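sry for the spam today, last one i promise. struct tokens for design, 94 residues
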């Protein structure tokens, strides 16, 4: 049985060399539990036809991959954070 599995892996590897099939790979999520990986990439930030000066001249920006929570933070979770850390939001600052 082990021989058949190794043979199958070699066949898939050979097929992937001559086709556009991606090689089999194990996907590992490097993020902490409860978070997902967002793959980085390049996008155009800004717009040439914007009415706001700071948004003009769209240019390509590279963003690295990052982890983000699967679910949004609830108001109760935010209140717990504020109470635990004495955090003051920008809107509450003098």
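last one done:
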């Amino acid at each position: 049985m082990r021989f058949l599995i190794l043979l199958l892996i070699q066949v898939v590897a050979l097929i992937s060399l001559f086709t556009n099939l991606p090689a089999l790979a194990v996907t590992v999520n490097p993020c902490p539990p409860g978070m997902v990986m967002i793959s980085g990439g390049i996008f155009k930030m800004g717009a040439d036809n914007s009415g706001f000066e700071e948004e003009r001249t769209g240019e390509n920006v590279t963003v690295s991959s990052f982890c983000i929570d699967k679910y949004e933070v609830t108001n109760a979770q935010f209140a717990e954070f504020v109470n635990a850390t004495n955090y003051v939001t920008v809107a509450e600052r003098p």
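Residues 2-18 form the longest helix (17 residues). ok im logging off now
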